[in-house]
Design goal:
The chain has one domain: minor pseudopilin epsh domain (minor pseudopilin epsh fold, 3-Layer(bab) Sandwich), CATH 3.55.40.10. The chain has about 200 residues and is an alpha+beta fold. The chain is built from 3 helices and 9 strands; from the N terminus they run ααβββαββββββ. Strand 8 and strand 9 form a beta hairpin. The longest helix is centred in the N-terminal third of the chain and has 52 residues. The strands form 2 sheets. A 5-stranded antiparallel beta sheet has the order 4-6-7-8-9, covered by helices on one side. The chain has a 4-stranded antiparallel beta sheet with strand order 3-2-1-5.
């Protein structure tokens, strides 16, 4: 007498059918996924753009401070007063004759272009003849024109505040020239003043 074989194929069919995934996503699920991806992409691009702008502002400001310090060293090396004309409207600084001098201090870099240094045509420069105790004026448009002097000893009779601004950045950057020692300080504008205790 032979026993009937169990119908295993029916169990396997039921089990296989239970484990089969759905055939695809619904239209609603697809729309939600696309919306989430678009939102995350937009946030990432906005954050990246802000980082790029901050880096451009930082680079331009540091390059400007380095150029100014280079002129101070040049005045010491040549034992003569070096004069700089700051033109905020053009966002440039350039060496010029001073007093009875017939020519400016000779330099390999007689001028500085902030737009070129920051790789941004939208960067703004503000210049004011003021000391570190004075409040930093609002800087959202290029304003100011002044002369900066460095003596043969590297000192300066000039108090000057230079601010740089770029839309989309957190804070303005600043360079403070402190008379009479000719000290150059670089920092950020915080609470209406140039704070050089913060990382630039």
């Amino acid at each position: 007498m032979s026993w009937p074989k169990p119908q295993q194929h029916l169990c396997h069919q039921r089990l296989a059918g239970a484990l089969e995934p759905d055939s695809g996503f619904s239209l609603t699920e697809l729309v939600v996924i696309v919306a989430l991806i678009s939102l995350l992409t937009g946030l990432a691009l906005g954050s990246q753009s802000k980082r790029v702008q901050n880096e451009r502002l930082k680079t331009g400001t540091q390059s400007l401070a380095a150029w100014l310090d280079g002129v101070r060293v040049l005045a010491i090396q040549r034992s003569e007063t070096c004069a700089i004309r700051v033109s905020a409207a053009d966002r440039t600084l350039s060496l010029q004759p001073y007093g009875i001098q017939t020519s400016a201090c000779p330099s390999e870099r007689p001028s500085f272009d902030l737009q070129q240094a920051s790789e941004s045509t939208n960067i703004i420069l503000c210049a004011a003849a003021q000391g570190p105790a004075a409040a930093a004026p609002i800087c959202n448009a290029s304003t100011g024109s002044l002369q900066i002097l460095f003596t043969p000893k590297g000192t300066s009779p000039t108090n000057a505040l230079l601010q740089t601004h770029l839309n989309g950045t957190d804070q303005n950057r600043c360079i403070q020239l402190v008379a009479p020692l000719g000290l150059l300080r670089i920092g950020k504008v915080i609470g209406g003043s140039c704070n050089w205790n913060t990382a630039s």
